[in-house]
């Protein structure tokens, strides 16, 4: 299986990748808005969001969630193809990054979390890794 299937959309860092909304009493699947989005997910199914960037020097790609009532929250990131997940998201999310650092995906194992998902790219380690290396 080709992980980066050209039939599915990819996004650039900073672009709104997807907005997932759930209406508990609605029988219809939650709508997705923003960006170039693929098929609509059904609540509880796995959803994969993809992000692409052209600069291989930006070897850290990050995924954020902005709930409808709140600020941005880091879900996880891939640094040099090694994924790191924040504790609150380890069970329901997975970050994957290609070896060339240009493609990154966020797999949402159960599409129930409402909010706007963002992808970002940067050089180097995370702030947390830099702080650890200085001690």
Round the mean pLDDT to the nearest integer and report it: 68
* Percent helix range: under 10%
> How large, in whole angstroms, is the Cα Rg?
15 Å
Low-confidence stretches: 1-10, 20-37, 129-135
Give the total of domains.
1
Biggest β-sheet strands, sense, barrel:
6 strands, antiparallel
Q: CATH superfamily, called what?
A: Immunoglobulins
Give the structural class. mainly beta
Global geometry: globular
Query: How many E strands?
Result: 9
Beta content: 35-45%
CATH class: Mainly Beta
Distance between the amino and carboxyl termini: 43 Å
Q: How are helices and strands ordered from N to C?
A: EEEEEEEEEH
> The CATH topology, please?
Immunoglobulin-like
Strand order across the largest sheet = 2-1-9-4-5-6
Could you say what the CATH architecture is? Sandwich
Count of alpha/pi helices: 1
Short recap of the structure:
Helices cover about 5% and strands about 35% of the residues. The radius of gyration is 15 Å and the shape is globular.
């Amino acid at each position: 299986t080709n992980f980066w299937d050209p039939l599915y959309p990819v996004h650039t860092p900073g672009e709104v990748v997807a907005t997932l909304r759930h209406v508990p009493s609605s029988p219809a699947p939650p709508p997705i808005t923003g960006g170039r989005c693929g098929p609509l997910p059904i609540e509880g199914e796995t959803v994969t969001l993809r992000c692409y960037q052209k600069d291989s020097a930006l070897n850290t790609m990050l995924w954020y969630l902005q709930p409808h009532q709140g600020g941005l929250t880091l879900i996880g990131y891939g640094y040099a193809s090694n994924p790191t997940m924040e504790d609150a998201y380890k069970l329901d999310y997975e970050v994957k990054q290609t070896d060339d650092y240009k493609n990154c995906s966020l797999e949402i194992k159960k599409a129930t979390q409402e909010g706007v998902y963002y992808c970002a790219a940067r050089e180097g380690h995370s702030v947390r890794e830099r702080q650890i290396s200085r001690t």
